Amino acid sequence: MLKNYLKTAVRNFQRQKGNSFINITGLALGISVFFLIVQYVTFELSYDGFHKNADRIYRVRNDRIYSDKHDKSAGCPPALAPTLKKEFPEVLESARLRGTDAIFVNADRKISDNLEKVFYAEPSFLKIFSFPLLKGNIKAVLEEPYTVIISDSL
User: Exposed (0-12), middle (13-18) or buried (19+): which is 151, by Cβ within 10 Å?
Assistant: First the structure.
């Protein structure tokens, strides 16, 4: 029975080449777009999903509306985090980050060619995010001034 269906399909494809080409191309394009959308949605939903409490971590977005553009960014006033924590009991912890480009000097006193991304963070940062530490106590890190967390790759 399957053999007869295949024969009939091949004959129809040969008889109606234009229609068959359009149908097969449309089907292939539809399947491709479906898989691209699934891949995109999966990627977006997995953003920072490796953290312990990923479902309870939120990022504040700042919308600035000007006469000629609408700017959306994560840059917020420094007082926002403590104010949110104080005013809303739902906010258990807040952490502020400030990014900067740092130039590293190696042991030979030569400046590195690469600019590395360095962030200043509050001690509560590791209470929110569950980055693993190779050394040190996660409860005491960043509590003292001039302390640092360095990634394994750096």
Answer: exposed
- Show the DSSP H helices in the chain as ranges: 2-15, 17-45, 80-87, 125-128
Q: Cβ–Cβ contacts within 10 Å for residue 85, how many?
A: 15
C-beta of residue 153 within 8 angstroms of C-beta of residue 131: no
Separation CA 52–CA 15 (nearest Å): 59
Phi, psi of 27 (to 5 degrees): -65, -45
pTM exceeds 0.70 for this model: no
- pLDDT single digits (tens) 86-127: 999 999 998 888 877 766 666 665 556 555 677 888 888 888
Task: Give the Cα separation of 19 and 52 in Å (integer).
Answer: 53
H or E segment to which residue 71 belongs: strand 70-73
